[in-house]
Amino acid sequence: MSNSINADWHRDHVLGSNAPMADRIVWHQEHVQVCGCRPIPESVLKAIAEQEPKNGGSGGK
Ligand SMILES: [Zn+2]
Predict the structure, then answer these.
(1) Gap between the Cα atoms of 27 and 31, Å rounded
(2) Domain spans in the chain, listed from the N-terminal domain onward
């Protein structure tokens, strides 16, 4: 198991502190596949779960 940082990828994929959550989600989903320096933070995981439509159309507002 290597938790090495993919410095080249990070150089090409700078996530600004002002980036919208949609950009953060895309960034982190790609990041976990190419780099092992950090896991996806809980706030982003939660946003991903809320973003993806759930299967089963019976519960709705
Ligand atoms: Zn990284």
Answers:
(1) 6
(2) 18-51
